[in-house]
Write a structure and sequence with these properties.
This protein is of the alpha+beta class and 101 residues long. 34% of the residues lie in helices and 39% in strands. A 4-stranded antiparallel beta sheet has the order 2-3-1-4, with helices on one face. Strand 2 and strand 3 (44-57) form a beta hairpin.
Length: 101
């Protein structure tokens, strides 16, 4: 199992998660709105409202999820982090396996 984290403009976040769910690439996506992001871009510090998105997928699909997010995302260089948790509740892991392709 992998946890995939990205951030996106609030207007894009729900559609991004919806697409990944419909394609059975993720089992769940949580959208946390009203995040103020600050980052370097082209030599300047930027400040943008974003949504933080946390999703779960299988080990087998994590690379496909990363590729798909990069295709769907409006940013040139979106933040996409995949983290493999040390411990996962077994029933949740089984559910995730069933809900992804």
């Amino acid at each position: 199992m992998n946890i995939v984290i990205t951030s996106a403009p609030p207007a894009e976040s729900e559609q991004l998660v919806q697409n990944l769910l419909e394609e059975r690439l993720i089992g769940c996506g949580n959208i946390w709105g009203n995040v103020q992001s600050m980052y370097w871009w082209k030599g300047e510090i930027q400040r943008e409202p974003e949504s933080l998105i946390i999703m779960e997928t299988t080990d087998e699909l994590v690379e496909e999820v990363i590729a798909r997010i990069s295709e769907l995302h409006s940013y040139d260089v979106p933040k996409i982090l995949a983290i493999e948790p040390k411990n996962v509740y077994q029933a949740y892991h089984l559910w995730l396996e069933e809900e992804t392709k």
